[in-house]
Structure formats: structure tokens, C-alpha cells
Amino acid sequence: MVPDHLNRVWLKSLGLLRLPGAGILLATTSTLVLVLSLVGFTAEKSTDGVARKPSLLDLLDEVARDSDSDKVLPGQQPDAPKGASWSSPLARQCSGIDQSTRSRLLDKRRKLPQLRQSIPADPTNYGDRFRSNPWGQAINPAPRVVVLHETVYSLSSAVNTFLTPHPRDEDQVSYHSLVGLDGSIVDVVDPLKRAYGAGYSAFLGEWAVTNSEFDGSVNNFALHLSLETPDDGHGSHGDHSGYTAAQYDALALVLDGWLERFEIDPAAITTHRHVDLGGARADPRSFSWSELQNRLAALGKLCQA
Questions:
Q1: pLDDT tens digits for 218-236?
Q2: 44-62, pLDDT tens digit by residue?
Q3: Element (H, E) at 238
Q4: What are phi and psi of 114, to 5 degrees?
Q5: Is the distance from CB of 140 to CB of 6 less than 8 angstroms?
């Protein structure tokens, strides 16, 4: 049985979903209605002859049909290495809100569709979220951690990389969304899909192994967002001049939507530097948590009981 929390998150997030070769599937907190026939799926009937609504488990089976391997390996999934503890720089804040910041963000939130565009990554650069590992053990695919990155080079360079087919697993890379220096937002991978934003990684001692030939990562339960690096930060040298006010505004608005949609705790917003287990990642360099604090507080996301 799917836990109530997972049911609630997926029902809340799926909204209106079109599956390949299928009709339109409507999902609400009370019902999942199959409007047109779904290839390979037939609703069962109860004893009174009324068609049974497909359950959330049925839906996830259909969405992930091609993602979970039919081959189950013997043994157990390897444990994740002990990761560093995480103390979120974001503090609870219910007062002291900057009203000008709040007004500006609320105005931008109303205009959000004009600030963002969708440029889907090549299908080789993302995949479905797995619900079981190669050893047949259940893993939770619900997004519950947000990993912040930077592009290192320009936004257009990052987009071109994601649009380029990468048939080799080790070359595949993507984020869910990118935020440009001008505050523009580019959505690259649907949040319901698995972006390849972090390789060898874990968060609070958790990872998911989805391919037995590779180490585990947070990708199966993470959302990835990358900030465009300023010109003086191109390359792998130390800090740079930092991100623009427009970027922090757009970042806060994207996070505002994700936190609400997937019921993610703001304390689970972290960095690539923190989740990386190889010690090679430093992004996002020159990131200001106080800038994010002020904006998420203004949006009411840091006042929790």
C-alpha cells in the first residue's frame, strides 16, 4: 500500500497528466478518473458492476512501467556512506517581514508565467523516478529535498548541454530548472521526472541506487535548481561576485511553488556542495542564504508551527 503521505503528495502534484498512448488522466485528492482508454490498462469492476477508479499505485505502475528493471538482483542495496549532518541556514521567521520585498514578490508571482519558459531536455538526460531498486526493494520516489547548483558557464551553455543527446550514462546531466542573471526561469525537466543533477551523493545519510553499475545518489528524490554563474565566475576557480537580486527573486518564487506542491520542509533546501560525496563540488559558490531567507520569509514559507 502506498503511504498516505505519498498518496497526498502525488495526488496534489500530478494535476492533469497525459501519458504516452493514453487519454487525459485527471487527479484530485478525492478521485482519479480515466477519461479516455489507457493502453494496456482496464479498470476492474466491483461486484455491483461499477468500474473501480484506478488507484494511485495503478497510476504509478503505468508512469514507471519502463523505469523499474524486470531483473531483480540478489542481495541487498549497499548502504549510503555516512554523510555530513545538515543544519539549515534558513531560520523560522514569522515577523520582521520586509513589506516592500513581499509586495514585489507577490507581484512577480502573479506574472510568473511571463518569467519562465520551457525548454525540455533531451530524453537521454533525464528519466522516470524509480519506486524500487535493482534488488527489488521499495524506494520512495517523492521529491523531498531541493539541491541548489550553479551553471559555472552561461545559461545558454547549460541549456545546450541538456539539449544534446548523451547516450552514455556517465555523460547524462540535467537540472529541473535554471534561473538566469536577469531573473528569467527556464524549466528543463518536469519535477515529476528524475533529473541527473548530482552523481555520487547523499542527504542526511540517504541515497537511492537505481542502477547497480553506479553508486547511489539523491536524484531519485531530489529537485535540482541551478543559478546562472556571473561572467567573473566562469571556470572552477574560487568565489565570484555572486547572484543578482533578480535571480534571488526568481529562485524564491520557484522554491515557493515546489515547497507548496510537494510539501517539502524549507530545511531540506541544500546545496550540491553539501550532498556531494566525492568532495569535488563547490556549487553554488558565493551563495547568500540571507538573501533567500528574506524572500522566503516574505512569501510566508518560513513561519511554521
A1: 999 999 999 999 999 998 7
A2: 444 344 444 444 344 444 4
A3: none
A4: -80, -20
A5: yes
In angstroms, the CA 173 to CA 166 distance is 8
Give the span between the Cα atoms of 16 and 260, in whole angstroms: 17
Mean pLDDT score across all residues of the chain: 81
Q: How far is the C-alpha of 95 from the C-alpha of 285, rounded, in Å?
A: 29
Closest by CA position to 291, among listed 226, 243, 231: 243
Dihedral-angle region of residue 245 (phi above 0 means left; psi in -120 to 50 means alpha; beta otherwise): alpha
Of 46-50, 66-70, 112-116, where does mean pLDDT reach its minimum? Answer: 46-50
Contacts 24+ apart (CB under 8 A), 107-115: 108/249, 108/250, 108/253, 109/253, 109/256, 109/299, 112/185, 112/253, 115/183, 115/184, 115/185, 115/250, 115/253
Structural contact between residues 24 and 10, judged by C-beta atoms closer than 8 angstroms: no
Non-local CB neighbours of 147 within 8 Å, separated by 6+ positions:
197, 198, 201, 203, 218, 222, 223, 224, 225, 270, 271, 272, 275
pTM above 0.70, yes or no: yes
Alpha-carbon span 8 to 99, nearest angstrom: 33
Q: Give the 3-state DSSP-derived string for 126-156, with helices as H, strands as E and coil as C.
A: EECCCCECCCCCECCCCCCEEEEEECCCCHH
Q: What is the mean pLDDT of residues 94-100?
A: 96
**Nearest C-alpha neighbor of 201 from the set 193, 192, 210:** 210
Type of residue numbered 276: D
